[in-house]
Amino acid sequence: MLPVQNRNTLQPVAAPRTAPAGVNASRAATPAPPGQPNKAYDGFLVGGDGNAYPPGTNIADVPPTRPQGKQGQGTLIFVNGIGENRAGNKSHLQEIANGTGMNVVGLYNATEGKLKDLIQSMGDTFDLGTNKAVDSLADMVYEKVKAGEPLRLMAHSQGGLITSRALTDVKNRLMLEDGMSKAEAEQAMGKIGVETFGGAASSYPDGPKYVHYVNRADLVPMGFGVGRPFSHPGKDAKVVKFGWPNPFGIFGNAHSTSTYFKHYQPFDGAARA
User: How many CB atoms lie within 10 A of CB 210?
Assistant: First the structure.
């Protein structure tokens, strides 16, 4: 059994350079060849150098996107939503770094066009089909949990579905493969901190510490995420709601991360509020 974790503070630290027993060793931090279609980088880690690194690469070996004008406070993994190509992802990671004040490594949710992305999102909702971003994130989280290390995640839109699905996979793996009880698995995941902006998932597994941001004018979290009735944002989750309902909000800036950052609070303070 893992020791009881203090859920009131989450101080991100560098990922361990060696994997714990029973976990696959990290691959060398060798960038993937550039210039491939977006889908070729699905589930890859994206560094501040613009390169994509294969799943399994140690977080500490990926150069992060750093906030402009100040020293980054810890490292955060950001999972993007639908329709984001590699060029757009690069600028998005810079926005996340500037907004949070943290160093950011992207976990790329590749696009094949919005229609195919929406179909994939439906599969994520019901835990159907293979999503390489889910598998990549689940393996990363599992390694960190087994090492007893904290981890910070942020997700936008479909990224919330990917995060929910990956965390559920980790929890099930801890119970099925490692013989933990439900309570022990939740305790083991207590050092994971998760923030979502307009997340498209309505249910998250208990254990991690969550702060969900919901714009009432954003149809994604209101219709599919934790803004809708009978959702489960995770035990003791903080849900920060703002704005006024607007059925046409999805066509403006209601769903953009820039809108959500106007209401952003430092993670530990928001989680304890």
Answer: 27
